[in-house]
Amino acid sequence: MKKNFPFFLVKISPWPIIMSLNLMNLFISIVLWINFKFLLLMIIMFMNLIMIKILWFRDIIRESTFMGYHTFYIKIMLKFSMIMFIISELFFFISFFWTFFHSSISPSIEINMIWPPKMIKVFNYMEIPLLNTFTLITSGFYITLSHLYFLNNFFYKSMKALLSTILMGLYFSMIQMFEYMNSYFCINDSIYGSIFFLSTGFHGIHVLVGTIMLIVSFIRMYKFHFSLIHHINFELSIWYWHFVDVIWLFLYLFYYMLI
Amino acid sequence: MAWLCSRTVLQTCRRQFFRNAVYSKEKPLPDPLDLATGLEKRELLAAAAGNFDPYHMKAIEIVRDSTRESPNLVPSAFKSRIVGCICEEDTAHVNWMWLHDGQPRRCECGHWFKLTEVAPLG
């Protein structure tokens, strides 16, 4: 069939329905894990999720790089959908900040009307959190450097800067885990522990996802999938990484510093 | 011993320099036109040939005094195409109609349209 339009009509793909079924199973298994300490099903469903994601993105890479379906209009639409996605993520975090301010600006009687609540020993913001902040800001600097090198046709320099970014992202996750393991309060310790671990934990998950996106960009760059005018994967990973970076700055400012 | 030490140092320095020299040789990125395939490549080639509207999606400027014998030509790769006529310059709405292959058609405002065959890009 001949066609004369820039839009890409996808073929029938099994991944959306399989992914939705898998997500339903994953949520049920998370409830099983939280309520009944039944961990095995959640691990299986999580690995299943990762496998489906790998196969789905493999299909997208085939459609874009090896079949050439991502035309100019498709690239614009991908960029706009990423902007929409990042805005929705931003409002996701705004809801956590809303909860935090609601509970911290006028603390309720149950937590002694002080913030942080009585008997909660908070983190020293000049120690690990400051190191985390510097790590993330430096990684944001290096990802910009990598993009600059890429746009100026320096392949190895771009790869090195991207690798530095990935290593700094992994380092961030590592010291964040270290901090969680050495904290004096847990997620069950009043509203403070709940909202603290919810926000920083979700930020940590976003850092992990951003790191995975950057690793995929790194591998695809190594395999010469990117050219000067078509490197959407790399560009959108950079946007996402900067977004995660900015969220961390606000987390550091409000959750660690100004309490 | 002094000779041994200095030779070791010199050899290490030489190897370092050699390795750095190899690593600093830059590799260029793939050429965009070489990397692209399929529809993307055809689009790029059309753009390189000066055609920035390879799908004929942009609005065409119509001749004001078109007749049945000299209608406005609408490019299409198919048997039919939906045409929107902006009848006057200041009109705020578009009059849509189907235009079929072979027969010129007149909008109610008086403009004539006719389908012309063009080769599809994809």
TrEMBL record, chain A:
<comment type="similarity">
    <text>Belongs to the cytochrome c oxidase subunit 3 family.</text>
</comment>
<keyword id="KW-0496">Mitochondrion</keyword>
<keyword id="KW-0472">Membrane</keyword>
<dbReference type="GO" id="GO:0016020">
    <property type="term" value="C:membrane"/>
</dbReference>
<dbReference type="InterPro" id="IPR033945">
    <property type="entry name" value="Cyt_c_oxase_su3_dom"/>
</dbReference>
<feature type="transmembrane region" description="Helical">
    <location>
        <begin position="76"/>
        <end position="98"/>
    </location>
</feature>
<dbReference type="GO" id="GO:0005739">
    <property type="term" value="C:mitochondrion"/>
</dbReference>
<feature type="transmembrane region" description="Helical">
    <location>
        <begin position="12"/>
        <end position="32"/>
    </location>
</feature>
<feature type="domain" description="Heme-copper oxidase subunit III family profile">
    <location>
        <begin position="3"/>
        <end position="259"/>
    </location>
</feature>
<comment type="function">
    <text>Component of the cytochrome c oxidase, the last enzyme in the mitochondrial electron transport chain which drives oxidative phosphorylation. The respiratory chain contains 3 multisubunit complexes succinate dehydrogenase (complex II, CII), ubiquinol-cytochrome c oxidoreductase (cytochrome b-c1 complex, complex III, CIII) and cytochrome c oxidase (complex IV, CIV), that cooperate to transfer electrons derived from NADH and succinate to molecular oxygen, creating an electrochemical gradient over the inner membrane that drives transmembrane transport and the ATP synthase.</text>
</comment>
<feature type="transmembrane region" description="Helical">
    <location>
        <begin position="161"/>
        <end position="178"/>
    </location>
</feature>
<keyword id="KW-1278">Translocase</keyword>
<feature type="transmembrane region" description="Helical">
    <location>
        <begin position="239"/>
        <end position="258"/>
    </location>
</feature>
<dbReference type="InterPro" id="IPR035973">
    <property type="entry name" value="Cyt_c_oxidase_su3-like_sf"/>
</dbReference>
<keyword id="KW-1133">Transmembrane helix</keyword>
<feature type="transmembrane region" description="Helical">
    <location>
        <begin position="190"/>
        <end position="219"/>
    </location>
</feature>
<dbReference type="InterPro" id="IPR013833">
    <property type="entry name" value="Cyt_c_oxidase_su3_a-hlx"/>
</dbReference>
<dbReference type="InterPro" id="IPR024791">
    <property type="entry name" value="Cyt_c/ubiquinol_Oxase_su3"/>
</dbReference>
<dbReference type="GO" id="GO:0004129">
    <property type="term" value="F:cytochrome-c oxidase activity"/>
</dbReference>
<keyword id="KW-0812">Transmembrane</keyword>
<dbReference type="InterPro" id="IPR000298">
    <property type="entry name" value="Cyt_c_oxidase-like_su3"/>
</dbReference>
<dbReference type="GO" id="GO:0006123">
    <property type="term" value="P:mitochondrial electron transport, cytochrome c to oxygen"/>
</dbReference>
UniProtKB/TrEMBL annotation, chain B:
<dbReference type="GO" id="GO:0005740">
    <property type="term" value="C:mitochondrial envelope"/>
</dbReference>
<keyword id="KW-0862">Zinc</keyword>
<feature type="binding site">
    <location>
        <position position="85"/>
    </location>
    <ligand>
        <name>Zn(2+)</name>
    </ligand>
</feature>
<dbReference type="Pfam" id="PF01215">
    <property type="entry name" value="COX5B"/>
</dbReference>
<feature type="binding site">
    <location>
        <position position="87"/>
    </location>
    <ligand>
        <name>Zn(2+)</name>
    </ligand>
</feature>
<dbReference type="GO" id="GO:0046872">
    <property type="term" value="F:metal ion binding"/>
</dbReference>
<dbReference type="InterPro" id="IPR002124">
    <property type="entry name" value="Cyt_c_oxidase_su5b"/>
</dbReference>
<dbReference type="InterPro" id="IPR036972">
    <property type="entry name" value="Cyt_c_oxidase_su5b_sf"/>
</dbReference>
<keyword id="KW-0479">Metal-binding</keyword>
<dbReference type="GO" id="GO:0045277">
    <property type="term" value="C:respiratory chain complex IV"/>
</dbReference>
<protein>
    <recommendedName>
        <fullName>Mitochondrial cytochrome c oxidase subunit Vb</fullName>
    </recommendedName>
</protein>
<feature type="binding site">
    <location>
        <position position="107"/>
    </location>
    <ligand>
        <name>Zn(2+)</name>
    </ligand>
</feature>
<feature type="binding site">
    <location>
        <position position="109"/>
    </location>
    <ligand>
        <name>Zn(2+)</name>
    </ligand>
</feature>
<dbReference type="GO" id="GO:0006123">
    <property type="term" value="P:mitochondrial electron transport, cytochrome c to oxygen"/>
</dbReference>
